[in-house]
Amino acid sequence: MSEHVIHFSNQQVAQVFRDIADAMEVLGENRFKYQAYSRAADTIDELPVSLYDYLRSGTLGDISGVGPAISAKITELLTAGTIEFRERLRAEVPDGVLQVVRVPGVGPKTALRLYRELGIADVSALEQAARSGQIRALKGLGPKLETRILEGLAAQQEAPNRFLLGEMLPLARELVAGFQSAAPMLANLSYAGSLRRSAPSVGNIDLVAAATEPEHVLNAFAALPHVARIETLQDGSAVAQLHNGKQCALYVARPEGWGAVLSLRTGSPAHRARLFTLAAERGFQLSDRGLMRDGALVPSPTEEVFYAALGLPLIPPELREDWGEIEAAQAGTLPQLVELSDLRGDMHTHTRWSDGRGTIAEMAAAAIAQGYEYYVITDHSFYMGMVNGLDAARLKQQRAEIDALNADFQRRGINFQLLQGSEVDMLPDGSLALPDDVLATLDWVVASLHVGLRQERELVTQRVLNAIRNPHVDCIGHLTGRKLLRRQGADLDLDAVFEAAAETGTVLEVDGAYERLDIDAELVKRAVTSGLRISIDSDAHRAVDLAGIEYGVLTARRGWASRDNVVNCLPWEQLRGGRN
DNA sequence: GCCGTTTTCGGCCCGACTGTTTTCAGTCG
Q: What pLDDT is recorded for position A151?
């Protein structure tokens, strides 16, 4: 067998450097060294151009954060397929230990001790040790840590082998585009499944292709550069393992059945069950091949045609959960869902003034490119030392910079306005991190929980209620504080929160950062139903994050939000006029 | 290990909380 040359995506290379950084941190290496690897990984992740192009032109060193050492290691990986330094680290810190570090409550020091002193080299050994009380035997570690570890593991295991929407959607789009150009015989191609419903986390990528000759399509699929190997292959479908460890399934339908097959591969099990019932009521059968009557395929080349055959208008993929969309479709009351292009501004963003990476000018340029009319800078409030939060004095300085930029936009005839806000912390004691007279000077105030998320229900709820009732607070940012696949949000009394927000008109945010997507679709639906207004924000820390607001839009759509429910679909003047 | 309008060495993100201590290390945001 000939040597197969592996093609690494930038994201795969970034992951290798992240692993190097984590392993070095576990080994207690110099902090600045492993941070350099970690920073380089972040930069590589965002590069618009393949590393192979940099390699060919000898310009790896031009990448910010990539110096001689990392440049040599990238070259080694791309040409030899492996990095010797990485393998040496692996000998000291097994891959399983890197997983152990990512368990909440366990840091690099503890992971190393658990490995060296108890031989814990993966998460299942960690679970066993925590369960059997072995961890408390180590000096300085106790029963509370064991409980914390088991809770953390439970949160992770609720969703084994799941990946975030923000990782999978770009990958799926890349696959679809690559597949389409490699296989001109495809009549149609789409991704499907929970990914197409924009679920916050998904297990794999499902593709549904339309073609008359499935074998050709399956061969072209197996030859895609992303595909590492084909796991299963049977008539009309294949499951592939990708180079990045993720799984992709392909289903090939006949062009005249594609609409039905795509619909069946997209809806949730509950939605699909409704479709089966509707089909049966109309004398159809549904199968892997599509819509059938008396053993013959009934043409349904598109989803419109398929849904029409069942007496329904086309239901947007995000709604296909059986949360009432079938009834709404039958009644003709499906919502006109909000779209990315409806957004006129972003209400929650950061800059270098706190923990962001971009300057105000850089973020503004990206906002103009995104087509916004306004853009609110909401850097952190003073309380969070780590994020370099702003106090009254620095807010004043920042206001001067914003004013100067706005004057410049006006001079140049650019219809764009920067606004100054704050992401003000709700402190553990129930107060806000900035006094009212300072909040009063701001254009938009987002209040968020960052600390004390594990406070007991009554306490943490009261903090949120205090913020909602503060007349200067316009919006509650990422309400629950959840981090997808990592930690649950705060234990909030949502009835009380929604009731208070309805009284005061306080906006609830859909944070588009794809590890948050908070509030989630179910809460969006609840907000929309109870007449609350939402905002959709990027929570951007870098210019490249602005586009991530799309995940917020998808989440809002999943929650049945229309343009009328979303404050930042309004022009700023109108939005400000309607403030409480 | 990387970087530079503080430029080839010296600095790079730091404060609060937690669980375990008995004066603090580790984790988190």
A: 82
Cβ-contact A313, A306 below 8 angstroms: no
CA closest to C1' of B12 belongs to A32
The answer to whether residues A49 and A138 belong to one domain is yes
> Any atom of strand B under 7 A from CB of A36?
yes
Closest amino acid to nucleotide B1 (CA–C1'):
A33
Residue A520 to residue A506: CA distance in whole angstroms: 17
Whether residue A572 lies inside any domain: the answer is yes
Looking at residue A76, its amino acid is E
Instruction: Return the closest nucleotide (C1') to the Cα of A85.
Output: B1
Is residue A33's beta carbon less than 7 angstroms from any atom in nucleic acid strand B? yes
User: Which candidate, A447, A503, A496, places its Cα nearest to that of A473?
Assistant: A447
Which nucleotide's C1' atom has the smallest distance to the CA of A71?
B1
Q: Residue A84 belongs to what domain range?
A: 10-157
Which residue, of A308, A331, A354, is where some domain finishes? A331
Nucleic strand B within 7 A of Cβ A388:
yes
Query: What pLDDT is attached to residue A106?
Result: 87
The reported pLDDT for the residue numbered A579 is 57
A461-482 confidence digits (pLDDT tens): 999 999 999 999 999 999 998 8
Q: Is residue A151 situated within a structural domain?
A: yes
Query: Which residue ranges in chain A fall short of pLDDT 50?
Result: 1-3, 385-386
**A123 and A22 in a common domain:** yes
Q: How far is CA A38 from CA A102, A280, A300, in A?
A: 15, 55, 49
Within 7 Å: CB of A136 and strand B?
Answer: yes
